[in-house]
From TrEMBL:
GO terms for biological process: cell adhesion involved in single-species biofilm formation. One of its GO terms (cellular component) is pilus. It comes from Morganella morganii (Proteus morganii). Residues 33-181 form the Fimbrial-type adhesion domain. This is Fimbrial protein. Signal peptide: none annotated.
């Protein structure tokens, strides 16, 4: 390498290093703190079940007018590595925006084109499970525990009566919370 280019390169690197924030002799005192609590929970959410997607596919609006709701679709959350010596039961709460016209139903997301519908949730036995309310207790098994639920699309009462359901894509979002006992 040419001696002039070499000196220029070394000088440039030195100026660059001096301009780095950490190169300042007057360091800023600590101003970022992290804290938390490590806990021992009886189960882990099975890899891949952290996010559950349930496609309803195409739903003819005339079916909602005729039957008020779709047939239920099953979904599940798998809990792995359960240790019943740490906890024996779990409750689930699906947190989300409640539909203002159907008590306990999940509202569709604001960006949806469809209107006049909501998503209902049920336990595996078909009993209603209201959004933002805790489910009945579910007994854990050692190893794998399956939490089985169902969901359906339901027409809002006024939209059904006035035949004003608006067609188009829709989505609804809820976050599930597990509470072990």
């Amino acid at each position: 390498m040419n001696e002039t280019i070499r000196r220029f390169f070394i000088s440039t690197c030195g100026v660059f290093l001096l301009s780095l924030p950490g190169a300042d002799a007057g360091a800023v005192p600590d101003n970022l703190y992290f804290h938390g609590t490590l806990v021992d929970e009886p189960c882990t959410i099975h890899p891949g079940d952290e996010t559950v997607e349930l496609p309803f596919g195409n739903i003819p609006d005339k079916n909602l007018y005729a039957y008020q709701r779709t047939p239920s679709k099953d979904f599940r959350i798998r809990l792995s590595e359960c240790d019943t010596s740490i906890g024996r039961r779990v409750t689930v709460m699906f947190a989300g925006d409640e539909n203002p016209f159907i008590s306990g139903a999940l509202a569709i997301s604001p960006g949806s084109q469809a209107e006049g519908i909501a998503v209902g949730l049920e336990n595996a036995d078909g009993t209603a499970l209201a959004v933002n309310e805790v489910s009945p207790q579910i007994t854990l098994n050692d190893g794998l525990t399956l939490l089985n639920f169902r969901a359906y699309v339901q027409g809002e009462p006024d939209a059904l009566a006035n035949k004003t359901i608006k067609r188009g894509p829709f989505s609804a979002i809820a976050t599930f919370h597990l509470n072990y006992d």
